[in-house]
Design brief:
CATH superfamily of the largest domain: Glycoside hydrolase, family 3, N-terminal domain
Number of helices: 23
Strand content: 15-25%
Radius of gyration: 29 Å
Bound molecules: beta-D-glucopyranose
CATH class of the largest domain: Alpha Beta
CATH architecture of the largest domain: Alpha-Beta Barrel
Mean pLDDT: 97
Largest sheet: 6 strands, mixed
CATH topology of the largest domain: TIM Barrel
Helix content: 25-40%
Low-confidence stretches: none
């Protein structure tokens, strides 16, 4: 094994510079003479997507296991399971000699229109961060690296190479950086990928605030930072400000950087630091190498199926119409039942090793009449008529609809939340023909359900659920398993309710994150807006009873007892939200700060312990430039969804953090009256003046800045002694 410092000492400056860019599209520079191999990096994130170099057509990828897309992974709320996914993807990486998987992505979901939402975990930074950490730890435990992407502020596809995301410090840290921070601190990804866009005026790959101040200094990150493919705008600035290597290769700008070095515009020390980070990455990859020549593809397929089973969200189930009984007569409608729609478009789109479509699986358990319904987005008159005919006299209809690659893909944002027009037409016609129609949504993220939500008894969110989604959905529909997925993002009633509606995707240059920290349920709950289906929602075939909420603040943990009161084995995710009862700065109504998923047999009870987030009671306080905790009362909510709060308890949190800015003489009498640090003194002064709340002059006085109030006091008919006393009282807070 090579020694990094030794190799660095032997490299010429040009060789060091060559490490600062890939050698090829998917490969880093290596040096055979020093035993430094040229390692392979490839997408990601829900499986290995390695280009087939022997193929004669472009975009041909070697077959690998396709796991559910990230939004679905997050809906499992099962970190152990996602850790296993990471491990099994790493094995496939070894099989294909891949050293770094380009994922996971933890960007935010400020708008449901964002084209890559399916590739990101959740609208909630805590859930995203924890699922990402589990995934990264899984992959890296097998000696393969990950690339946490896209750092940061990449919440849209529109003008992604050009747009500048304007984000307040508070929203940046609490919402958009938080999942990165959790993943960096809990899983230490080997690499991190800088985004295309700029953040607050500086392109992400050369943004020294993000790359140096936050990542290296505050979070103590020691891995290597790469650019997204083609994201380096100014190579000199980028390396000077914290980027270790540019992708993809070959290094067309190596010569340019060498010239800049000669001109003294980049130091030897900076080049050494960057080259050392790249060499360390190559070394980790070399040490982690495993010779895997055989994959148990069936076992990986089973794991993909298990994730799919745990991610399916039963949104609606009137009169317990699901699960269906076996051997009934069912019409199955829709191309996506036959040709599974299991992943989205763009750089995450893979070649599946094997695919289980739903139709043949459904045929094993019921008497099925199938009708194609549509091809991609289009329904012909004949297809419509066949679908309607198939539905007649059936015990139930299962209708598969969803979005296509033209709708949900990298590179574009959606323009609305609607399903394809023809799918909506088909839904109407099928519901008309048979009202017992279960709608299965094959979408990577939220869609508008308004036109049919009240007409159908059951809706199932089946996501882009990976290569084994056909058997998973069959088991769920026919009750072999109870659904246990919970929504990783809110379903608003309509797009217009979304807080970023009037500021997404921004203008030509800038997109302003005007909604601040009020993203997703943080907004809907604070505004008390009704939603179609709330964050964390997901029905079960069983019922759960919550009891005995106990809080141990010294351990930062919560315990709850949950009982399965239904007839079947089922899993429940207990979600802990924290609601600040009173706060100095506007804070969301509640925020997720812990969760656990537990499996319960009928009648079984378990007492589960949930360790809360290390920042459970903190928020980012702009005037302190850091996270801080405001002392006071907080309600802890043990919930089955963000809108299904089962148990609450109030705790009194002590803190000396100066979250509230102490009033000065420039602030008002009322502000002095409201603050415990100035109350006693202003109260004393008011008593001297014989003015109390309720006095006819109180309204005028309380709105005056202290300085003005003092001028007024000077002009009042008062004894010199009282006037002097008033002055003395105020001067206590100079
Ligand atoms: C995407 C990245 C991806 C890279 C390599 C970029 O367009 O934004 O997520 O890893 O391409 O395919």
């Amino acid at each position: 094994m090579f020694d990094v410092k030794d190799v660095l000492a032997k490299l010429s400056i040009q060789e060091k510079i060559s490490l600062l860019c890939g050698d090829q599209t998917w490969q880093l520079t290596g040096f055979e003479k020093h035993n430094v191999p040229s390692i392979i990096l490839t997408d990601g994130p829900h499986g290995v997507r390695l280009e087939d170099k022997s193929a004669t057509t472009p975009f041909t990828f070697l077959p690998a296991t396709v796991y559910p897309a990230e939004a679905a992974m997050a809906a499992t709320f099962n970190t152990d399971l996602i850790h296993q996914v990471g491990q099994s993807i790493a094995k496939e990486c070894h099989f294909y000699n891949v050293s770094v998987l380009l994922g996971p992505g933890v960007n935010g979901k400020r708008s449901p229109l964002a084209g890559r939402n399916f590739e990101y975990y959740s609208e909630d930074p805590y859930l995203s961060g924890h699922i990402a950490a589990a995934f990264i730890n899984g992959v890296q435990s097998e000696g393969v690296g990950t690339s946490l992407k896209h750092f940061a502020g990449n919440e849209q596809e529109t003008r992604r190479f050009l747009i500048n995301s304007v984000i307040s410090q508070r929203a940046l840290h609490e919402i958009y950086l938080r999942p990165f921070e959790i993943a960096v601190k809990q899983a230490n990804p080997w690499t991190l990928m800088g985004a295309y866009n700029a953040v607050n005026g500086s392109p992400a790959c050369q943004n020294s605030y993000l790359l140096q101040d936050v990542l290296r200094e505050q979070w103590q990150y020691e891995g290597a930072v790469m650019s997204d493919w083609g994201a380096t705008r100014d190579k000199l600035e980028a390396h000077n400000n914290g980027l270790d290597f540019e992708m993809p290769g070959p290094g067309k700008q190596n010569e340019f950087l060498f010239e800049q070095f000669k001109l003294g515009n980049i130091s030897q020390q900076t080049i050494d630091t960057r080259a050392l980070n790249v060499l360390n990455l190559i070394k980790k990859a070399t040490e982690g190498k495993q010779q895997i020549t055989k994959i148990n593809w069936q076992q990986h397929n089973k794991l993909s199926e298990q994730v799919a089973k745990e991610s399916i969200v039963l949104l609606k189930n009137d009169n317990h119409c699901l699960p269906l009984s076996k051997n009934i007569n069912v019409a199955v409608i829709g191309q996506f039942a036959k040709d599974s729609r299991f992943q989205g478009g763009g750089s995450s789109s893979m070649t599946a090793k094997m695919v289980t479509h739903a139709l043949p699986e459904l045929e094993k358990v019921a008497n099925i009449t199938f009708a194609q319904g549509y091809i991609e987005e289009n329904v012909t008159t004949t297809q419509l008529a066949e679908a309607v005919a198939a539905c007649k006299n059936k015990d139930a209809v299962i209708l598969f609809v969803g979005t296509t690659d033209a709708i949900e893909t990298e590179g574009f944002d959606r323009t609305d939340l609607l399903l394809p027009k023809d799918h909506l037409k088909l839904i109407d016609a099928v519901l008309e023909a048979n009202s017992n129609t279960i709608i299965v949504l094959n979408c990577g993220s939220v869609v508008d359900l308004q036109s049919f939500v009240n007409k159908t008894p059951a809706i199932v969110m089946n996501w882009f659920n990976g290569q084994a989604s056909g058997s998973a959905i069959t088991d769920m529909l026919f009750g072999k398993i109870s659904p246990s997925g919970k929504l990783s993002e809110s379903f608003p009633i309509c797009l217009e309710h979304n807080p970023s509606f009037d500021c997404f995707p921004g203008g030509k240059n800038d997109v302003e994150y005007k909604e601040e920290t009020l993203v997703g349920y943080r907004y809907y709950d604070t505004k008390k807006l009704p939603v179609q289906f709330p964050f964390g929602h997901g029905l079960s075939y069983s019922n759960f009873e919550y009891s005995d909420l106990e809080i141990d603040i010294t351990q930062n943990s919560v315990t709850v007892t949950v009982k399965n009161t239904g007839q079947i084995q089922a899993k429940e995710t207990i979600q802990i939200y924290i609601h600040p009862i009173k706060s100095y700065l506007l804070r969301p109504e509640q925020e997720l700060k812990g969760f656990v998923k537990t499996d319960l047999a009928p009648n079984e009870s378990k007492t589960v312990t949930i360790v809360l987030c290390d920042r459970a009671f903190e928020h980012y306080v702009p005037h302190l430039n850091r996270y801080a905790c405001e002392a006071g009362l907080y309600e802890i909510r043990a919930s089955s969804s963000s809108r299904d709060i089962r148990l609450t308890q109030t705790v009194n949190i002590q803190s000396n953090d100066p979250v509230k800015i102490k009033p000065t003489q420039k602030d008002t009498v009322f502000e002095w009256f409201e603050d415990e640090r100035t109350f006693a003194d202003i109260d004393e002064l008011l008593k001297l003046l014989e003015i109390q709340p309720g006095h006819f002059f109180w309204g005028i006085l309380k709105s005056l800045p202290i300085e003005h109030a003092m001028q007024m006091i000077n002009n009042m008919t008062l004894s010199d002694e009282i006037r002097a006393k008033c002055k003395e009282i105020i001067s206590r807070h100079d």
